[in-house]
């Protein structure tokens, strides 16, 4: 037993990412001279909350405590009214956060040797915290597991590089690249436009490799200095962890080069918005086969039911897929962002696209989510739509063989409309959890109230002297 333990610890030390136990974590960190560790938990916005502590303190007590309110904080740092959500007496009571050592990785941009590890949240009686985004995704995956299914996902994340902007009253502008000039036109798929920021992307790749994050491809997207990184397909929780870490990695690498990286859905008025597309398939655990294809390689009824679930329930989870007021600026007619729940084979104008593939790789791409969304909640919500389609045996519409951009809107047009649809969907509440639905809706409503306190330039431009 001791010999096997030493072998396991040796293998753990050689890994860039993840170990199985506390003892392996000690060996892993000792081999790298780690002196500090960031203990993280993703909040509702996908922001890393937690504590930084000396490695010695962490190993003396690897369990961390944070108040329950960490999962009630809005993006502006405020809180909704707790009444009806939690007992006001325990609203700020401590939670128990336990490290998931499979997420252990270096923090390559830190000045001192530093590690990071993502934690799961539990109540003091051992129950998982129902409103924690990582737990919401785990719960949805358990529903699939109970049916003998295993989802597989592959996220694609778009983002913009912009000049540093310290005054929010000024619009964002593309940064200056190695040529000494900013992009002024659209450079879709341009290698040269990516090369403008070679030094930055070399750092992104280096930081990613140091953390064991696997980039599949990097491309220049439609907008000026808009990029997209695709991740390799895999297990949903692991991929959500990677997106969570990737966002921070890209922002940190950009700051080194005096550039901002932003995942705002619509950061620049006359440029395309940024999406987080999710490719999804489902495997039969017993056979290892993709349930979307039969033995002859043809699509199965389950494939069409999975699509139909998205068609029926995407409007109900829109406040997760497009979580901020700004998110809905991306979803406009005559853009490549979808405005409806139509689907088609290799049709990028539809909300649901079926990419060309072999039968084994048959999958559904959800093109609705924006890049500002929480990856745990986006993947959970999208898989929840597919799950309901499967268990309800829903039937999809016929595939769309035309441009979908000029069709009617079938998705909510704004945040409050989306929150109302979320609260009214009983089926989705059963899948995602009623406590989570109530909590998330309250946070989104509070964020909208904060937004309404701001007077926009449009109002000053057109209302100041005209009404």
Low-confidence stretches: none
Helix content: 25-40%
Q: C-alpha Rg, in Å? A: 22 Å
- The helix count comes to 15
Query: How much of the residues is beta strand, in percent?
Result: 15-25%
* Separation of the first and last Cα atoms: 81 Å
Number of strands: 14
- Secondary-structure element pattern, one letter each: HHEEHEEEEHEHHEEHEEHHHEEEHHHHH
Q: What is the arithmetic mean of pLDDT? A: 93
Shape: globular
Largest sheet: 8 strands, mixed
What structural class do you assign from the helix and strand content? alpha+beta
3D structure, described in words:
The protein has 467 residues and is α+β, with helices and mostly antiparallel strands. 35% of the residues lie in helices and 18% in strands. It has 15 helices and 14 strands. Strands 7, 8, 9, 10, 11, 12, 13 and 14 form an eight-stranded mixed beta sheet that branches. Strands 1, 2, 3, 4, 5 and 6 form a six-stranded mixed beta sheet that branches. A hairpin with a 7-residue loop joins strand 5 (105-106) and strand 6 (114-122). It is globular. The mean pLDDT is 93.
């Amino acid at each position: 037993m001791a010999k096997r333990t030493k072998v396991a610890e040796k293998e753990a030390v050689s890994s860039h990412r993840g170990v199985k136990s506390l003892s392996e974590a000690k060996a892993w960190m000792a081999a790298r001279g780690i002196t500090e560790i960031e203990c993280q938990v993703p909040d509702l916005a996908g922001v890393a909350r937690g504590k930084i502590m000396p490695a010695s303190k962490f190993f003396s007590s690897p369990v961390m405590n944070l108040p329950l309110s960490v999962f009630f904080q809005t993006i502006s740092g405020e809180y909704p009214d707790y009444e009806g959500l939690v007992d006001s007496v325990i609203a700020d009571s401590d939670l128990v956060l336990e490290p998931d050592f499979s997420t252990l990785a270096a923090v390559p941009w830190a000045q001192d040797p530093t590690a990071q590890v993502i934690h799961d949240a539990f109540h003091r009686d051992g129950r998982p915290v129902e409103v924690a985004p990582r737990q919401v995704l785990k719960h949805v995956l358990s529903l699939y597991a109970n049916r003998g299914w295993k989802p597989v996902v592959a996220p694609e994340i778009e983002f913009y590089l912009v000049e540093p902007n310290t005054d929010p009253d000024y619009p964002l502008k593309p940064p200056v690249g190695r040529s000494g000039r900013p992009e002024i036109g659209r450079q879709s798929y341009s290698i040269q436009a990516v090369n403008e920021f070679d030094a930055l992307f070399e750092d992104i790749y280096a930081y990613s490799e140091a953390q064991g994050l696997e980039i599949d491809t990097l491309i220049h997207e439609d907008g000026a200095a808009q990029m997209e990184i695709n991740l390799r397909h895999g297990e949903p929780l692991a991929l959500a962890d990677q997106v969570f870490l990737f966002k921070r990695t890209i922002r940190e690498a950009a700051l080194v080069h005096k550039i901002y990286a932003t995942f705002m859905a619509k950061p620049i008025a006359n440029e395309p918005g940024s999406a987080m597309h999710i490719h999804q398939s489902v495997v039969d655990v017993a056979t290892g086969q993709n349930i979307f294809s039969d033995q002859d390689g043809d699509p199965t009824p389950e494939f069409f039911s999975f699509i139909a679930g998205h068609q029926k329930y995407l409007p109900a989870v829109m406040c997760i897929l497009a979580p901020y007021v700004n998110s809905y600026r991306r979803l406009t007619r005559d853009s490549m962002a979808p405005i409806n729940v139509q689907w088609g084979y290799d049709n990028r104008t539809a909300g649901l696209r079926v990419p060309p593939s072999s039968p084994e790789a048959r999958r559904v791409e959800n093109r609705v989510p924006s890049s500002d969304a929480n990856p745990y909640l986006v993947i959970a919500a999208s898989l929840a739509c597919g799950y309901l389609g499967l268990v309800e045996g829903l039937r999809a519409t016929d595939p769309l063989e035309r441009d979908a951009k000029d069709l009617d809107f079938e998705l909510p047009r704004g945040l409050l409309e989306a929150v109302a649809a979320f609260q009214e969907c009983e089926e989705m509440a059963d899948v995602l959890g009623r406590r989570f639905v109530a909590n998330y809706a309250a946070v989104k409503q509070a964020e909208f109230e904060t937004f309404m306190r701001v007077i926009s330039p449009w109002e000053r431009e057109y209302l100041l002297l005209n009404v």
